[in-house]
Amino acid sequence: MDYQKQLQVYFAEADENCLPGLSVDCVIFGFSNNQLKVLLLRWKDTEEWGLPGGFIYKNESVDVAAQRILKERTGINKLFLQQFHTFGDDVRYNREEVSRKLHWPDPSTRRWPNRTVSIGYFALVDFSKVTPTADFLTDECRWWDVENLPSLLFDHNHVVEVALKTLRVQLSWQPVGYNLLPEKFTMPELQRLYETILNRPLDPRNFSKKMRALGIIERLEEQRRGGAYKSPYLFRFDKEKYKKALKEGNLAFT
Amino acid sequence: MDYQKQLQVYFAEADENCLPGLSVDCVIFGFSNNQLKVLLLRWKDTEEWGLPGGFIYKNESVDVAAQRILKERTGINKLFLQQFHTFGDDVRYNREEVSRKLHWPDPSTRRWPNRTVSIGYFALVDFSKVTPTADFLTDECRWWDVENLPSLLFDHNHVVEVALKTLRVQLSWQPVGYNLLPEKFTMPELQRLYETILNRPLDPRNFSKKMRALGIIERLEEQRRGGAYKSPYLFRFDKEKYKKALKEGNLAFT
Fold first, then answer.
1. CATH fold for the domain made of A172-248
2. Which superfamily does CATH assign the domain made up of B3-163 to?
3. Which residues of B touch A (CB under 8 A)?
4. B20–A113: do the CB atoms touch at under 8 Å?
5. Per-residue pLDDT of chain A (254 residues; tens, 9 = 90+)
6. The complex's ipTM?
7. CA–CA separation, B28 vs A155, rounded Å?
């Protein structure tokens, strides 16, 4: 079946079996090489990038749809996806322009409403445990530095911005490093992650002091070897203490 | 026009002119007599209470719809409404049961989809400045203590719970008293508000110390007179300092 035919089947199925005028978009954050990254898809036969997204079946909860869409579109399974915002502007993007760019069927031939409200989900993942895979709609699925995103399809640059803002607020009451970092990490790595999310430099001495004062990370005897500089110590989150502190609301980082 | 006819016109208009299968629900919090309250509507000719809600016009942003719905259904104008969660479970409530209770037209006679996804908004208001008014769909619009809500229509008890949870989290990085309290208030009043939202008792001496350390409230020379006990001092928020601290993220209350 050629791609045009596949697209027609895909949209006809959405028109028939999905909640009309609703979609889900997923912002998947990872952290690697001291960079906060986001997972993007390049649509088939184009240079156009966007977030993984899709539609909700009529008998499916929106949360379950988000998990399914992420799995189908990137191969990633069972992430902790967190709903963060619903994008409901009356004009979110130019529908005809997007359809043209992506070689989609003419919107006027579809039963779908004239606008789509999208429910945004985000997740923080351990970069090293994820193998992004393109699906039949796309040629490529890969990580991009948050600080150097291309101009995205739909209103997806805005969606990423709102997800980042949510992450920034969340930093003030829960340490996000827990999900984004590998099991063992150095203090400069953790600091760099915080700096990227907060979008401002932090003082290393203060940062280390504050983080350790939270009582949820422990310094290991191991050091990270092989770098050009003095080998830094490795740390890891103490999951029990972390859970207890989160429950008691004692994790503010200001 | 009798009520049955009015209802039919109302739903026919929604089927024709609104985004199918979507609604908005508003949780309006106020604080009075040392109680956190929420605004509820009693549907005409019933003893059934629910949140103010409604539908979104096809060419209207969801944010604008939320403002309009609140105005139409309660008479309250230009509140700062904050989107907090979209309720997208596949079965949120028993549709036939709700229609029967509210004397609504049989759902099978409508063009509306079989389920409705609802976008939740909340607002914090100065209780004394609001005059709730019932609309043509309802007999009564009034405040209820959050701690003593009746069994609500739809999934509205759950919606209020999620709004409260959001408020609790928000307390850790922004003082909600600013919107909920009248201009001048006593420290015990502020503490009672925090206790209601956090759902746990707080130590008066610690509370006062922490709140004053944030540097955003000032003690006035005035005292609240007329009570049975020692007259407590009045306080007010310093709006300039509040805005500055919020921008700098220095308002954690833990």
1. Arc Repressor Mutant, subunit A (1.10.10)
2. Nucleoside Triphosphate Pyrophosphohydrolase (3.90.79.10)
3. 19-22, 56, 58-65, 83, 85-86, 88-90, 113-115, 117, 119, 169, 172-173, 249-252, 254
4. yes
5. 799 999 999 999 999 999 999 999 999 999 888 889 999 999 999 999 999 999 999 999 999 999 999 999 998 888 889 999 999 999 999 999 999 999 998 888 899 999 999 999 999 888 888 889 999 999 999 999 999 999 999 999 999 999 999 988 887 667 777 778 888 999 998 999 888 888 889 999 999 998 888 888 899 988 877 766 678 899 998 888 887 777 665 555 54
6. 0.88
7. 30
